Amino acid sequence: MRRCVGEHLGYLDASDDLLTALDENDFDTLPMTASHSLAAGRLPPHHTDPFDRMLIAQAAAQDLTIATVDGRFNLYDVALHARRALAPSRGDRW
Q1: Which end of the chain is more exposed for a tag (fewer CB within 10 A), N or C?
Q2: Where do the structural domains in the chain lie, given as residue ranges?
Q3: How far apart, in whole angstroms, are the C-alpha atoms of residue 88 and residue 62?
Q4: How far lies 57's CA from each of 37, 42, 76, in Å?
Q5: Long-range contacts for 17-26 (Cβ within 8 Å, ≥24 apart)?
Q6: Whether 73 contacts 51, CB under 8 Å
Q7: Is 34 helix (H, G, I), strand (E, B) or coil?
Q8: pTM of the full predicted structure?
Q9: pLDDT tens, residue by residue, 4-26
Q10: Which contacts (CB < 8 Å, 24+ apart) does range 15-23 have?
Q11: pLDDT tens-digit readout, 25-63
Q12: Hey, is 23 helix, strand or coil?
């Protein structure tokens, strides 16, 4: 979903056949459930980007690790894989 929105807004150039690329590279997809949506809505307001809040909620619910350079993710109780963290004060686009 984020890929589609980003491509529509013009700040992401992605493959036309994302599902094939995911399959060929052994990626699994994770559906967004009502439980994930409710959990995202209950998160503290450290991050206001709705897509990132959904990723955080899904990672917490499914015990997954998020790969990110966004320092605001450090403010949530989720496993992270980050090479470099950005300051939480960086402005949101939403």
Answers
A1: N
A2: 1-29, 31-94
A3: 24
A4: 8, 9, 9
A5: none
A6: no
A7: helix
A8: 0.70
A9: 545 555 555 566 777 888 888 89
A10: none
A11: 898 889 999 999 999 999 999 999 999 999 999 999 999
A12: helix
